[in-house]
Amino acid sequence: MKRNACCFGLGLLLVLVCAVLVLIGGVAAAKAKPLPGVRAEDFSSHGIALGQEVSEKQLTKAFGKLLYDDDLTRWGVPLRRYTFKNDVRVFAQRQTNRVVEIVLEKQAVRARGGVRYGATSYYVQKTYGKAERVNLDGAACFIYTNAEEATQRLICTVDHDDGSLTELRLTTLPLTEEEANDWAARGLLRNEDDAEGDATDILIENAAIDTSALPESGDDVPRLGGLLP
């Protein structure tokens, strides 16, 4: 009888130990699995980050063959647009050579976590976090904001019908006329009509950027905050 009781006790102890090990393993796995949400690295591509001062040589090394470059103005800010062979466009401030926007289309759409051209809206949100699908200039988009720099946005454009990813746009430019006016009023946006010599330095707080940690490789009004609670 005592022997049976002893065996029962040992068996129960073994079950409890196994349960504890399973629980610990589950907690460890949960900690190891990255949570959805944008990261600082999501605001760079091929080692080129928003706000970084670049040369044409650096851009060519990062994105491949340059087809042509041309000048344009957006929100009164003089820009130089670099168009590359592999469906990539990079916009830089004309006077400072700082990158203000990177557009990746078609097969160039490759990002962290296997996000690429044709990815489902579910997978996009699984990677970057849940967001409301909004209409921006006629395109259906998910808009995410850099938690460390509110003027930097990641815009995931998706197909209106099936919601598949068609374009990634990393930008530090205003998205609407109302936002451009607000930034100008707060001193965040300077254009070519300003009197100062370096008036095209759009984001004054982004004048210097550390890129050492970068990896190598409807009618709705847009909600510029991006992530939903």
Short synopsis of the structure:
The protein is an alpha+beta fold and 229 residues long.
Which tags fit this structure?
single chain; 229 residues; alpha+beta; 8-stranded antiparallel beta sheet; two-stranded antiparallel ribbon; 4 helices; globular; disordered C terminus
Fold and architecture overview:
The protein has 229 residues and is an alpha+beta fold. The chain has helices spanning 2-32, 56-63, 121-128, 177-185, and strands spanning 44-45, 48-49, 66-74, 77-84, 88-93, 99-105, 134-136, 139-146, 149-158, 165-171. The strands form 2 sheets. An 8-stranded antiparallel beta sheet has the order 3-4-5-6-10-9-8-7. The protein has a two-stranded antiparallel ribbon with strand order 1-2. A hairpin with a 2-residue loop joins β1 (44-45) and β2 (48-49).
Structural class: alpha+beta
- Shape call: globular
How much helicity do the residues have?
A: 10-25%
Overall radius of gyration:
24 Å
The end-to-end span amounts to 59 Å
Biggest sheet record: 8 strands, antiparallel
Which strands sit side by side, in order, in the main sheet? 3-4-5-6-10-9-8-7
SSE run: HEEHEEEEHEEEEH
Number of β-strand runs? 10
Count, helices = 4
Relative strand content = 25-35%
Mean pLDDT across every amino acid position: 79
Low-confidence stretches: 20-32, 195-201, 203-211, 217-229
